[in-house]
Amino acid sequence: MKWTQWLPELTRIGDDGLRDRTVDVLTEAARRGGWADPSIMWYVEETASGAPPVVRTEVKLVDHLRLVAAAAADMAEQCNRIVGSRTLVDHVLAGGLLHDVGLFELFGPKSPAEPAVPVLRQPLLLRHPYTGARLAEEMGLPTEVVHIIATHSVEGEHTKRSKESALVHWADWATYDVMREALFPKVPQERAFYYYPGGAS
User: 17 — phi, psi (to 5°)?
Assistant: First the structure.
């Protein structure tokens, strides 16, 4: 699979071993979901509100992963440069690229006629932060990166997030809202959408 072509931010990971394991996790998640070409998968919102998943045909999942990883890594680099935060940029990049990796496993292609449309493969009893973190742990990623995946969404609200996880978490929210305004502006702001099935009031 052409992950460095689909996710050029992989090349920013300086640790060769971590980069290779990140690719391995992406590849295995895509295999489990039945994605021969995961780069075509539309972005899907699988929310914590209990609402049915919503497919966004305006953007691909890999583009969302790129946005989050790039934004979070850029913030980490500036925090290191300006205040000497010692944030682990490689972990931020790996966690950003893998934060939604569970979606590749939870969802599969709808049909040969609609290969980019994701549909649930199983009952949604465990959301993507859990399935993604479980896979990353199985495949030997550092606990710090598994933590980012597990806590990047609302599941991490009552957890002490690492600074690397906090950057991915806020990059996820912020870039989603910018993407939403640009591509599907009638959708409510994500934080309201996640917590309240009816959307923003």
Answer: -65, -40
Say how far apart CA 69 and CA 172 lie, in whole Å: 9
Q: Are 109 and 163 in contact (CB under 8 A)?
A: no
Q: Are 147 and 162 in contact (CB under 8 A)?
A: yes
Name the one residue in this structure whose structure tokens are 């996710």: 7
CA distances from 182 to 55, 97, 175 (A): 16, 22, 10
Model-level pTM? 0.93
The residue type at 55: V
Task: Count the Cβ atoms, other than its own, within 10 Å of residue 132.
Answer: 27
Handedness of CA 186, 183, 42, 170 (dihedral sign): negative
Q: Which of 179, 182, 155 is nearest to 169 (CA)?
A: 155
DSSP output for 75-113 = HHHHHHHHH-----HHHHHHHHHHTTTHHHHHEEEEETT
- Summarised one tens digit per residue, pLDDT across range 2-40 is 999 999 999 999 999 999 999 999 999 999 999 999 999
